[in-house]
Amino acid sequence: MIREQRSPRGGSRDQRTNRRIRAREVRVVGSDGAQLGVMPLEAALTLARNEGLDLVEISPMAQPPVCKVMDYGKFKYEEKKKAAESKRAQVVVQLKEVKLRPKTEEHDYEFKVRNTRRFIEDGNKAKVVIQFRGREITHKEQGTAILNDVANDLKDVAVVEMPPRMEGRLMFMILAPTPKVAQKARELVRQAAANAKKSPPPAPGAGKPAAAAGAAAPEEASGEDSQEAPTPAAP
Description:
- With 235 residues, the chain is of the alpha/beta class.
- It has helices at residues 41-50, 72-88, 106-121, 140-153, 179-198, 208-228, and strands spanning 25-29, 35-40, 54-59, 66-70, 95-100, 125-131, 158-167, 170-177.
- The chain starts with 24 loop residues before the first strand and ends in a 7-residue tail after the last helix.
């Protein structure tokens, strides 16, 4: 079906289609991919109209421009679908902030390091921050030592992307996953996206029969109770 593809402002950001094609002659590719040769634009539009499809300019810089007969709406839908699937398969790297103190106790330190490890194994980055209060700022070496300990404890999964630096009363460094860990995280995300694509959606009304049976059970029990109830004696 011949139709115009316009943006809300009257123009279009997509390929020219149908009557918006400006060339007098075009090289036409059929809906089955066959090369149909060069023909006047009107003849190409008639060809597309007879098939109930669109004439889409796919190579405007060629001489003459190359146009293809296709269902443009379906084409745009497939493009959007592929873009969404590609986006789902991408790893979105997050930056998590982990705060420590110069006098952080051992169990608290280990707890935060374990959480940071899990976060990095998911392909994310971590900003490890040492917060100084009061006179603690005079012992910056304690903060540097803690950050070095964190980097050493996570060296099997992380690399130091930004070494320790000071900003006001904060000292921090940034850890990033090693290439091997980052690759594994990307593979897991792609696998999850592929599994989500393969798994069929739940059937409409799934689970309703069980719910209906459960609702009927009290009625049956109620009926049994009414049958077993004694009949009042006649006065």
